[in-house]
């Protein structure tokens, strides 16, 4: 019989960092990313069966809160399934159902296999971030030096701001002025790379993540109030220096805002004013175009929560928001009392979580692996850290 003890033990001990490694390595290509996610799902499924059924040690036990979280996710999945059946759109979303299962993997297995906040191993993280930065820089320089290469179409920058927050874990075990200077320098370098890549959404993700980490780490929530000003300034600068047609407000404030948002505001307004017939259940997964003309909306609404409402209705959106609230319910407790490495670790995960939310609000739909798979893993880790009253082991 195949001995699965070692790989399963490794998986359960590394469950808190494996998704980060998957996302970093997956930057090389979509096929590699999907393959790694499938392996992650397979290992998690085997581990769950092993620990809950076959193994006499390290059994998985559901406490009440974790059981409620998983029940909410199952209800959310069921609501999306019912919505697709109701709209006769079940066959349109085969890939999306697979990503849905991966989102369950990232959340459920993280909740079950991590029973306390781990000590973060910095060497694997350093290797993952270094590899990501090297590959991204190579792709960016190659495109910039190649005639006719369009950076925004050839270079994917989404993983940079998502994993950027974890660089703070390499700088120390508690927040101090020197760490702030070092982290600001890293942030500036990342900002330059994203600026060269003409990645406005990613730049905004980076700015918001930086602001959240600083505000949470140093208990300066007032920093968040000025963050929108920096976001707007960056959008204007990228529009002036990088856009082929700079934003002009000559046609009025509304038209200028639409151009500044790359017509996203127009897409959102049209979607809200042209809702699906059944707003409780929505239009069904990947069935947006049944109610919105393709020549205006193409294949996405460029807003995860708007897509959740449009495709799964108010029922699905309510369940998503409920799950988010449950995962982040202890954030105030951590903000008040966590110190040292626990505060640094929580800030890193929170910064990454917020970066993914910004990506969902402005670019990636809720079916993207960047949003759905990774955000539930991050949410599960924040839940664990917020629920654990013990010191780091």
Give an overview of the whole structure.
The protein is mainly alpha-helical. The chain is 69% helix and 0% strand. The chain is built from 18 helices and no strands. Helix 1 crosses helix 3 and helix 10 packs antiparallel against helix 17. The model has no long low-confidence stretch (mean pLDDT 78).
Q: Which term fits the overall shape?
A: globular
The strand count comes to 0
Unreliable residue runs: none
Number of helices: 18
**What structural class do helix, strand and pairing data support?**
mainly alpha
* Fraction in beta strands: under 5%
Radius of gyration: 21 Å
How much is the average pLDDT?
A: 78
**Largest sheet, strands/sense/barrel:** none
Q: SSE order, as H and E?
A: HHHHHHHHHHHHHHHHHH
Tell me the domain tally: 2
Amount of helix: 55-70%
Through-space gap between termini: 35 Å
């Amino acid at each position: 019989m195949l001995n699965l003890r070692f790989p399963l033990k490794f998986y359960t001990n590394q469950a808190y960092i494996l998704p980060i490694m998957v996302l970093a390595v997956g930057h090389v290509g979509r096929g590699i990313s999907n393959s790694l996610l499938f392996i992650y799902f397979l290992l998690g499924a085997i581990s769950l069966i092993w620990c809950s059924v076959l193994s006499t040690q390290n059994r998985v036990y559901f406490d009440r809160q974790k059981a409620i979280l998983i029940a909410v996710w199952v209800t959310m999945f069921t609501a999306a399934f019912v919505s697709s059946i109701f709209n006769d759109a079940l066959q349109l979303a085969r890939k999306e159902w697979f990503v849905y299962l991966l989102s369950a993997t990232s959340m459920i297995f993280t909740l079950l296999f991590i029973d306390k906040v781990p000590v973060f191993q910095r060497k694997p993280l350093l290797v993952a971030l270094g590899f990501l930065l090297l590959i991204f820089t190579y792709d960016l320089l190659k495109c910039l030096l190649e005639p006719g290469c369009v950076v925004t179409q050839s270079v994917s920058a989404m993983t940079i701001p998502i994993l950027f927050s974890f660089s703070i874990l390499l700088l120390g075990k508690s927040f101090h002025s020197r760490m702030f200077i070092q982290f600001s320098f890293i942030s500036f370098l990342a900002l330059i790379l994203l600026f060269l890549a003409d990645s406005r959404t990613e730049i905004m993700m980076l700015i918001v993540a930086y602001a959240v980490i600083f505000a949470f780490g140093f208990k300066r929530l007032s920093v968040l109030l000025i963050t929108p000003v920096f976001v707007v300034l960056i959008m204007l600068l990228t529009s002036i220096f990088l856009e082929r047609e700079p934003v002009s407000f000559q046609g009025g404030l509304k038209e200028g805002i639409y151009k500044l948002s790359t017509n996203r505001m127009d897409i959102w307004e049209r979607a809200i004013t042209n809702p699906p017939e059944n707003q409780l259940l929505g239009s069904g997964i990947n069935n947006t175009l049944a109610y919105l003309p393709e020549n205006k909306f193409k294949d996405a609404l460029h807003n995860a929560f708007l897509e959740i409402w449009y495709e799964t209705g108010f029922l699905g959106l309510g369940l998503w928001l409920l799950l988010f609230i449950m995962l982040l319910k202890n954030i105030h407790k951590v903000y008040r009392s966590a110190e040292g490495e626990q505060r640094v670790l929580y800030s890193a995960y929170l910064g990454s979580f917020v970066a993914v939310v910004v990506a969902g609000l402005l670019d990636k739909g809720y079916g993207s692996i960047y949003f759905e798979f990774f955000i539930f893993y991050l949410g599960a880790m924040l839940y664990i850290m917020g629920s654990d009253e013990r010191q780091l082991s």
